[in-house]
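Subject — a protein and its fold
Encoding — discrete vocabulary of local shapes:
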Amino acid sequence: MAASASGALAFLSQETRVRAGSVGGFRTPAPVTMDSFFFGCELSGHTRSFTFKVEEEDDAEHVLALTMLCLTEGAKDECNVVEVVARNHDHQEIAVPVANLKLSCQPMLSLDDFQLQPPVTFHLKSGSGPVRITGRHQIVTVSNDVSEEEESEEEASEEEEAALCPIVPAKKQRGRP
């Protein structure tokens, strides 16, 4: 749990966004929500590929964090090669084999939250599977909308600052014995 929280913080620290309309000259961070949903798909002789994609109109940041690939019931003792097609840092599509599973020697592989940006396509390049792919779909939303409650708090804070009397130095009294 702590590792996922630190991973989320690392992800959020890369996305430094602040809300305009600051209070008292200070910039406050925009409200951030993070949701995580279970992801799973199965590749087999009948379904040799699966594509994970999100709506393009969505302003949220999406991450597919892969946790495990494993052979499931009915798998033969053969090499099952799983390939991932995704985009690299230059936004070019690349295909990389990520697992070679065999029932007698390596029936599963932990990917330790291997993170990919959608769209992501999985291909069963060789073997008949079935191969189960599991992970998490993480959605990070940064809201630039200021709620009415936050606006009223900001106005109250500004009024409170204006209502405070300025600090005036005390006058010295003369002529006291």
About this structure: The helical segments are 2-14, 148-163. The chain has two helices and eight strands. The CA atoms of residues 52 and 120 lie 5 Å apart. The first helix runs from residue 2 to 14.
